[in-house]
Write a structure and sequence with these properties.
2 domains, single chain, 27% strand, alpha+beta, four-stranded antiparallel β-sheet, 171 residues, Alpha-Beta Plaits, 44% helix, 5 helices, two-stranded antiparallel sheet
């Protein structure tokens, strides 16, 4: 099944070990997940040589499928944190996505402005704020009752023992 949505594929290429940073930044801006692929650079000028052997820098490619409305926000945050001027030396670009197949993800069913809202129960709607506070205070008092009762019991036991020892001494 193919679904048509206003989606973009955000592709970020960073030095190896920085994909977690990219994901943390992207998620903070509304991204829900990504695919991370290990790669290596092919820039002739960027390769190092050790003992005459060319070593290509290892990279990670982070691909994020995001709603078109979130694209700029996510990309700006990634570039700010992981751009070319940073230690990760990242680049970021996006591609339009016409259709998506084989993906049954919340991204396709949830609207960008939707946020889960806790619905109050009918009991909560009926109770005013003061009543809720009072019920919380009552619950705290009930929790303290057994402790206070055990203190009273201990004090009474001490008094009874003292009376018994005083009676035994009199005899």
């Amino acid at each position: 099944m193919f679904i048509k949505q206003d989606l973009n594929l955000i592709v970020t290429v960073v030095a190896r070990g920085f994909s977690d940073t990219v994901m943390a930044v992207a998620k903070s801006e509304g991204a829900e997940g990504a695919t991370i692929i290990s790669a290596r650079g092919s820039d002739v000028n960027a390769s190092d040589t050790v003992l005459g052997v060319s070593i290509q820098p290892e990279k990670e490619v982070v691909m994020i499928l995001a709603r078109k409305q979130l694209r700029k926000k996510i990309m700006r945050a990634i570039c700010k944190e992981c751009g070319l001027g940073s230690e990760s030396k990242g680049i970021c670009f996006s591609l339009p996505v016409d259709e998506v197949g084989g993906l049954s993800h919340q991204l396709l069913t949830k609207k960008p402005s939707q946020k889960p809202v806790a619905k109050p129960t009918p009991k909560d709607e009926q109770k005013p704020k003061e009543a809720k506070e009072n019920s919380a205070q009552k619950a705290e008092e009930k929790a303290k009752e057994p402790i206070e009762k055990s203190k009273e019991t201990t004090e009474k036991e001490k008094e009874n023992k003292e009376e018994k020892t005083a009676d035994e001494k009199k005899k």
